[in-house]
Amino acid sequence: MKSVLLVNASPQGPASRAYGMARKATDNLLSTEPDIRLVERHLSANSPSPISGAYADAIVQRARRETPAFVESETFIQDVIGCDYLIIATPMHNFTVPASLKLWIDYVLRDERTFTRRDGYKVGLLADRPALVIVGSGGMHNGPHARQPDYLSPYLTHVLTTIGISSVAFIYLQGMARQDAAEQSLVSADRQLAANPVFGLVSAVAGS
Fold first, then answer.
1. In a designed cystine with 141, which of 3, 34, 113, 150 is the match (CB 3.0 to 4.6 A)?
2. Where along the chain is FMN bound (predicted)?
3. Confidence (pLDDT) at 202
4. Beta strands of the chain (E only): which ranges?
């Protein structure tokens, strides 16, 4: 059975508009593959633990996967390994990812578990799979009306590529702090999602 992993980093939880868009993407997948299993991680409601000294020591000592310090990391890594589709719904906090998502990343990126090193570079150990990142922000950070930098997009792209996931698409919900801009952004995001060949309505119509 195929599965989709939905990671929601919004402090608004299921009320987040980015999460709502993520659920639309999930529903589109279900319209073509009804047996898909949905796995959700709400990082604000169940925030990953801060990185501990025991975890850091286990990394340095190259401890076995079964070590107690790796339990949380293994849970998140198994989520990613087991999914056929990955969806991340996240706000932009201070130009980049929120703290809860950064902790999730720190547990998922693990040397000799999700990436290895070759010639001094990190190389992913996981198989590629379609990934969709939906970014919500109160201001404008992308396009001609951008008023702040976007460090989130290149960072998350590099993070996912590091573990082997390079098929990544982004949808932006910008200007959500202003009603007029929010309405336009939601309409634009709906169009982008509908046209996405994997997560959108195009795949449903084509049956692919």
1. 150
2. 10
3. 55
4. 3-8, 37-42, 85-91, 115-118, 121-124, 131-136, 168-173
CA 132-196-17 angle, to 5 degrees, is 55
Position 142 confidence tier, pLDDT thresholds 50, 70, 90: confident
CA torsion through residues 125, 131, 137, 140, sign: positive
Is the pLDDT at 206 greater than 50, yes or no? no
The domain total for the chain is 1
Q: Give bridge partners of residue 123 from the DSSP assignment.
A: 116
Tokens 């980049």 correspond to: 96
Q: What SS3 class is residue 86?
A: strand
What sign does the CA torsion over 172, 176, 180, 183 have?
Answer: positive
Q: What's the angle, vertex CA 17, arms to CA 181 and CA 31, rounded to 5?
A: 120
| Cβ atoms 89, 21 nearer than 8 A | yes
10 carries a ligand binding annotation: yes
In sequence order, what are the beta bridge partners of 7? 41, 88
Q: Which domain holds residue 161?
A: 3-206
